[in-house]
Amino acid sequence: MTKDLIAITDWTGREIRDLFGLAAGLKDENKRCKRHPHLEGQILAMVFQKPSMRTRVSFEVGMAQLGGHAVVLSPSEIGIGKRESASDIARVLSRYCHGIMARLFGHDLILDLARHAAVPVINGLTDFNHPCQILGDLFTILEFRDGFEGLKVSYIGDGNNVVHSWLNAAARLPFTLHLACPEGYDPRPEVVENAVKAGLSDIRIFRDPREAVRDADVVYTDVWASMGQEEEAEKRKRAFKGYQVDEALLAGAKEKVRVMHCLPAHRGDEITDSVMEGPHSIVFDQAENRLHIQKAILVTLMGKNRKDR
């Protein structure tokens, strides 16, 4: 049985597909204002090193809609890994709460939380991966097409934590994933290798974005400098010149291509304002679906209020 969500590869393809079905049902019930108190009386601890509007609001609203409650722990309040160890925090929060969501810098911290917690742990983001985001994105794609067979996703930009989760997804679900990254900004080789070894998806890395987006169903991008990389911003702007998602780049994709961005966006850098606001954009659909997929994750992990070890 699924115990945590640290990486998409923690779950089987069947579990992921079941998650999408649950998210669709919860979304439909939400639209019809139908109560779904699956987690009535339960508490989710939310540990933040990195701030985030979408992560905080979607998890907090999600818990409220499921009949539970979320407790927010800011960096100044908890100091994970500095003021107090992740292992001690995990054991204390397990005595107070029914689940833990953490949005952190170091991936080792989320691993320590999961290792020592007696309740489910959800990775809200680390510098290594971002599973909730990509699960929500895949759920969004399913709203615009039937299944993943024949799907081509083209990612343009930095081989960052978002890309690592796209690669994890490609190891569990069959689709084409083409990446365009400048030299020196590829995803970690071991993550690429593991995804390729799974043998489900066509995975390739290009230097030319135009090659990567050829006949793409989805063109995806992210900021060139993530949180914690602010000092590299100007250097990265130079390295990523030519990797902007604009109308000229989209011309090489399919006519009904969908454009996605995990937000926040730096309009005018990795994506133009006209593309963000244009007819191909489903950026705000995917932002909304963070709520619905995370509710499904919460119900899946916390619905029986136990964690087998």
From the 3D structure, determine the CATH topology of the largest domain.
Rossmann fold
H/I helix tally? 13
| Stretches with pLDDT under 50, minimum 5 residues | none
Architecture of the largest domain in CATH? 3-Layer(aba) Sandwich
Mean pLDDT: 95
User: What is the CATH class designation of the largest domain?
Assistant: Alpha Beta
Structural notes for this entry:
The chain has about 300 residues and is α/β, with parallel strands linked by helices. The chain folds into 2 domains: about 10-130 and about 290-300, 3-Layer(aba) Sandwich (Rossmann fold), CATH 3.40.50; about 145-280, 3-Layer(aba) Sandwich (Rossmann fold), CATH 3.40.50. The chain is built from 13 helices and 9 strands. The chain has helices spanning about 15-30, 55-65, 75-80, 85-95, 105-115, 130-140, 160-170, 190-200, 210, 235-240, 245-250, 275, 285-300; strands spanning about 45-50, 70-75, 100-105, 120-125, 150-155, 175-180, 200-205, 220, 260. A 5-stranded parallel β-sheet has the order 7-6-5-8-9. Strands 2-1-3-4 form a 4-stranded parallel β-sheet, with helices on both faces. Helix 8 links the parallel strand 6 and strand 7 (about 200-205). Helix 1 crosses helix 13 and helix 2 crosses helix 13. The longest helix has 20 residues, at about 285-300. It is globular. The termini are close together.
